[in-house]
Amino acid sequence: MLQISQLNLQLGNKVLFTNANATIYPGHKIGIIGANGCGKSTLFSVIRGELGSDNGDVNYPKNWQLAWVKQETPNVDMSAIEYVIDGDVKYRQLQAQLKIAEENNDGNQIGHLHNELENINAYTIHARAGELLNGLGFDALAQQKPVTSFSGGWRMRLNLAQALMIDSDCLLLDEPTNHLDLDAVIWLEKWLKRYSGTMLLISHDRDFIDNICQGILHVEQQSLNSYTGNYSNFERQRSEKLSQQQATFEKQQAEIKHIQSFIDRFKAQATKAKQAQSRVKMLERMEVIAPAHIDSQFHFEFPPAKQLPNPIMKMEKVSAGYGDTTILSDIHLNLVPGSRIGLLGRNGAGKSTFIKTIALSQPPISGELEHSKHLKLGYFSQHQLDRLHPGQTPVQHLTMLNPAMTEQEARNFLGGFGFNGDQALDKIDQFSGGEKARLVLALIIFEKPNLLLLDEPTNHLDIEMRQALTLALQGFEGAMILISHDRHLLKSSCDELYLVDNGCVQPFDGDLEDYHAWLLTEALKEAAASQPTESKEHSATAKKEQKRLEAELRKKISPLKKQTDKLEKQQEKLETRLQEIESLMADTELYTDKNKPQLNKLLTEQASIKSELETIELEWFEFEEQIELIRSEFSTN
Questions:
Q1: What is the pTM of this model?
Q2: What own/partner pairs with CB < 8 Å and gap ≥ 24 does 43-48 have?
Q3: Helices 596-636 and 512-529: angle between axes, nearest 10 degrees
């Protein structure tokens, strides 16, 4: 197991850990969460031995092989697949030894090395590396391209594939989904579920954590706090903890107020001086419980747009692409206030092309694209982070949009996006990717758009900021089109899903689970298409069999899906009541003697609901496992 004991660490003037402790058992998958800058990535550096602690120990078995994603990619001309295979150091060592043995014509050594290679499944290594690369979005042609030909985001995918290639006992993943699209996230999630080693995962994607991890390590107040279950369970447990802490705090504050009142009244009276003094000492001894800061540091919303034209934008028979290359054809779309569309589609299908065409950052090849004359566009994409003005501060960026705004007004607005105190006056040159993304979102929201085009807005954003953005989008009155690998954001913000595939943009009939099934079906079709050409008769039979399998898959999953939907509704109803109970229990008046019967009644109901929730969760997990098993069986058949 991995044991962190009494860890103390300070970097510069910032104390990150004070007597922090944690135990991670073999084979457990643990999500590590916490605010940006709290020390999550630094903890990984300590575990890897790259950074020493001021005090304390980090111990794990000496024979453990650790794996992690490198942050730098060398400029090498080797192919992508060979670069990924470099992750298997043992294979490369045996390969080098075999070459020497063959040069020396050492038959015994050659035989021994071939046996060693067979023991590590070396003869399937290219197939395994190809599977990893294919899952992360590299087709067969891309796998043979040199590493130097790929951009930064794709190089990070190569580094991820190389880390997964290592036969590791412990895998350290720091924001692995940042450079992935939804398809690759779904594939990676399935791969990590099958991973048998110990895993520590830093991620701000709550659905990703939910579906993989069975424990949470929360970095807070320089400590490591362990919680059982996935992220949703963590939220409930922490909410209960903070609610109880808040109630205790308020009760204690009332007690302190009462004692202080006694001191103030009687400290000047000789007959009461001793009692007053004893109460002063009581206050000094009393451990003051910190109030529970449940609220996030991010507080913002979309102000009402000045105008909400109807329609905001129309597309009729539009073709989109680059120059003479058509990527999408015959697009029909009518965006009105309240349209909330999530775009689905495999990598390279044309989602970003579609967004750029609507934004007119690239003109349509043909067809009619009509914007309302009252259109106010808010367009977020990763390349816009580079369009911020170096050498300027967040306040200066905001006052460029409204020169009449005072510095204090600008700072008040920016405070809702986490730019507090002097940070609003810091030059952006040293800002992290997350800070730049928050600033771009702040500038977009400030301009009161009536059409939002969001292309992966959550990259580099932490969970608190993602949640704040989700809540803000729910109150947005205009039209929105969203591309995101964050399934929680898609589910919470979008009413419609559109699929971009095979040169078309069409409404998708289903939810994200259905999209997952669609991806599996398409993978089956492509695998069948890659087989040697068969006779027409056999091909027709194969197609018929494929359709039968698809129908069978839907039929098998349908009753299970109905059960999970039913359980989710029950869970939602119980959680709503649980929140109501906990809100009532936060009232300090409830803890007086006269209200004891009501308190006991609430406590009984609270315990009953928690027990029922646990039962429902177990049932839900069982159904989900059955669904996943059925899908896995169909994908391998």
A1: 0.69
A2: 43/17, 43/219, 44/68, 44/172, 44/174, 44/200, 44/202, 46/7, 46/9, 47/2, 47/172, 47/200, 48/172
A3: 10
CB atoms within 10 A of CB 427: 13
What is the identity of the amino acid at 116? Answer: E
330: phi then psi, degrees, rounded to nearest 5 = 55, 50
For the chain, how big is the Rg over CA atoms in Å? 29
CA-wise closest residue to 42 among 65, 64, 20: 20
Q: Are 183 and 519 in contact (CB under 8 A)?
A: yes
d(CA 211, CA 192): 10
* Superfamily of domain 2-94+125-234, CATH level 4: P-loop containing nucleotide triphosphate hydrolases (3.40.50.300)
Which pairs with CB-CB distance under 8 Å and at least 24 residues apart come from 90-96? 90/120, 90/167, 91/117, 91/120, 91/122, 91/125, 94/120, 94/122, 95/122
- Domain 313-509 classification at class level: alpha beta
Q: Which of 400, 398, 402, 401 is nearest to 411 (CA)?
A: 398
The one-letter amino acid at 9:
L
Task: Provide the Cα torsion 414, 416, 417, 423; round to 10°.
Answer: 50
Mean pLDDT per segment of 10 residues, for the chain of length 637 residues? Answer: 91 88 93 86 91 88 92 87 92 91 88 88 88 90 92 90 93 91 92 93 92 92 90 80 69 69 64 54 51 63 90 94 89 92 90 91 91 93 83 94 93 92 89 89 95 91 87 89 92 90 92 87 73 52 67 78 84 84 75 79 83 78 74 62
Neighbours of 486 (CB within 10 A): 26
Question: Which residue, 168, 195, 214, is CA-closest to 60?
Answer: 168
- Give Cβ neighbours of residue 433 (< 8 Å, ≥ 6 apart): 385, 459, 460
Q: What is the number of alpha carbons within 13 Å of residue 51 lying toward its C-beta?
A: 15
Q: Which residues contact 634 (CB under 8 A, 6 or more apart)?
A: 520, 524, 549, 552, 553
> Which string of b and e fits 355-368 if b means at least 16 CB within 10 Å?
bbbbbeeeebbebe
What DSSP line would sit under 84-98, residue for residue? HHTT-HHHHHHHHHH
**Cα 175 to the chain's mean position, in Å?**
8
